[in-house]
Structure formats: C-alpha cells, structure tokens
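Box S1 | Example of a co-folding query
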Amino acid sequence: MSGPVPAYTLTRKRMKNLRMVISPGTGEVRVSAPMRTPQREIDAWVRSKSAWIAAKQVEAAAQPAALAPGPEADALRRELRPLLAALIDEWVPRMGVPHPTWRMRVMRTRWGSCNKVKRSLTFNVELARKDIHLVEYVVVHELAHLIEPNHGPGFYAVMDRHLPGWREHRAELNGRAID
Ligand SMILES: [Zn+2]
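Box S1 (continued) | Returned holo structure for zinc ion
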C-alpha cells in the first residue's frame, strides 16, 4: 500500500494487538501498540485504515468535545437519573454485589468509573444520549468492579457471565474509556 500515513499519537502498552481510538471533538488519532511491534508495522497498519480514520474524523468533528455545565447538562441528568436507578436496582441483586452509592458527572474522557473501597460509582451525564443497552453495559461494567477492581481475566469472566455481548457494546462506545 502507498500513500501518506495519517498523523497519530502512539502509546506503548503491554498488550497483544494494535488498537486505535479517534477522540471526539478533536478527531485526534490515538494508537496503542504492543511494546515490541516495529514502527513500520504500526505505520502500515495506520495507513491501511486511512479511509476509516477520515470517516471517523468527520463524525468526531460533529460531536461536541465536552459538555458545559448548564441547562443542557441538567436536562441530560434528569433523563439519565431514573434510568441509572432502575438499572442499578435490577443488576445489584442479579450480580450479588453490595448496593453502591452513585452519582453523575460531566466527564470528558470516560463513561464511568468505580471506587471499590468507597463502594461508589460515577457515570458520565452524556450516557443520556446513548441507547439503553449501552447504558446498561456501563452499569454492569462498573458493578463488576465491585467484584474485580482491575481489568484482568477475573473481571472479564464476570462480564462474560452476566453480559455476554459486552465486547460489542464496548466497541460501540469507543472514543471514551470505561474505567
Ligand atoms: Zn473498568
């Protein structure tokens, strides 16, 4: 293949496969690569995805980079609160986890987070704009951290047991992490 390599930022991680994320708003291309993958191999992989990157960057530019506090955020909060409450009430007994405290926040880079010690979950207000199955995925993901704090094999086993389709949901939510 020829043609220029799209600009990207690279992070090396202990991982098996190359991974790419396009940032909402800025359209920045962020690539994670295994420690030992040669640079030319990464360049070739990124170049092979040029068309996909260009399409995603158009989408990213149309997305607001960050939600400002104000009436819009308040409206999303009002919409999301009862949905989260219902999903948590449903999944806590199903997963056998202790009932957590939880809150909603405007978060720029994440969909949710969990503090296992404090037993407290935080959800991104902008989940209100997502389909319910994706909100459910984030809820189950954060509740699973009350069992397994890290993204290790034990965590994935919990996810596979309770929500077998979670990998597809994660792919749909790409652009922001789920801690
Ligand atoms: Zn997580």
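The chain has a mean pLDDT of 91. The CA atoms of residues 92 and 99 lie 6 Å apart.
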